[in-house]
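User: Can you predict the 3D structure for this chain?
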Amino acid sequence: MKRKVIVAAILIVVICASFLLALSISPLKKLEGRLMNNTKKPVVLIVVDSLMNEPLQKVIEEGDAPALAYLMNNGQLHQEMISSYPTMSVTIDSTLLTGTYPNQHKVPGLIWFKEDENRIISYGSGISEIWNNGIKNVALDSVVHLNDSHLSKEVRTLHEELANRNHSSASINGLLYRGNFQHRLNIPGLITMADLLPKDIHISGPAFFSLGTLAQYNRENNHHNFIWQRLGINNQFTANELKYLIKHKKLPSFTLAYLPDADASIHKYGPDHIKGIKKVDQAVQDILNSFPSWEDAIQEVTWIILGDSGQSYVTDDKKTSLIDLNQILENYTFWERKNPNAELAIAVNERMAYIYAIDQQVELSEIVNVLKKDERIGFIAWKSGQTNYVVSPHSEGKLEFSPEGKYVDDYNQSWRVVGDASILDLNMTKEQHVIYQDYPDALARLHGALHSQEGRVIIVDAKPSYEFIEKHSHDHAGGGAHGSLHKVDSVVPIIVTGASKLPESNRLVDLKNWILQLLGDS
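Assistant: Here is the predicted structure, written as structure tokens:
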């Protein structure tokens, strides 16, 4: 019995720590023969988890980030790129790769409730959450379903678009990677013995596909060095893979490389923690050193360094900083695998949460009225048809909005807006222009989340310094957390070096089209 418990614990840690990374990938055969024309200057997009502008500037000013400083000084820094919503990696990556918000790409968050299957979808989080949702379910959702079925087939990823335009692409440690090439995943024996995943899984990815220690091109990324370092989902592994492509002159038209390490330290120590950025710079130095000189690197390649989300500091005192939704809604029953016929399901994405009214007898207005009593909540939102409704504990009014109306924002999106615009801190000018303030691109991003799934769904979004929890949540009190629509979680920097043109918009949702423009048609 003890051995079974130990094995189960190891499996939980492996899956929890690596999301979708308990896997291996068979080597690509004769890859060179499958490559397509690469007639334009290659683009390398390095996504840095939880990179924020102020800590970045501080590290550069102190001289502790020479590589990032070099790219910035020989390119441009944009300090306020607007992320997707919720500001969680899988949703952000889906937006980045598809150029759409969740109402189109259909990946609502790291955790969400799938009504037609009556279960919580989780791509990996805290151990208790994984256990509650089922280890096998989490493994299948992360490894198979996220890219294969949850990401909408109605939208094309950047990898798919490039393949259709006769350009090759690569994904290194990216969570979202759907492309036009088939790869076979070989699941480790321990996982198949536990019946968590089938032995053979085929996925669709870009021509170059690297994910974890058993999916490498670079011999430096061997199993023994990285097995206990999140199975290769770390900065050094990513840098090693990118170095291999560069040194062997296999760099495709587009490469997405993911540097995840800073996120964990910021979650633990808070947004001001800069050690993670120093490690990012070390990885970027390692990559640039693959060229004869850094000058050669920026002449031969277009470099994009991009944050995915910010983080808000969560105060130490758990009694005040953690918003316990089970406690607030204590008069209702909650979905668990052992209690699937509950009234509500809760999917916490750190500083935002989805609340699902499963029982048709439960009125949304009742839930909203209870939530409005907690002043730590920034706003509460729900939908009816195409109309979205937003209220706040800090306002007696209500905001209604829907697409296509007389008001136009900075992104040429038109809206019908009625009611208390201060709830989302909107400045409505006499010229019928919408100006966003504390909630960047608020209307499109919130609309995207509300319409990302079917069913009766309520969104709750916390004020800075607060985080939502439910019975099984892992919290970040005393550290940092993200997920919310607020600008502290939503605004990230981007460094662009060597591009022939710069982004016309300051939104991540528009970067896909910009990258396609950089590469041009074949």
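Residues 239 and 286 are 7 Å apart (CA to CA). The chain has two domains: 2-107+151-311+492-519, 318-481.
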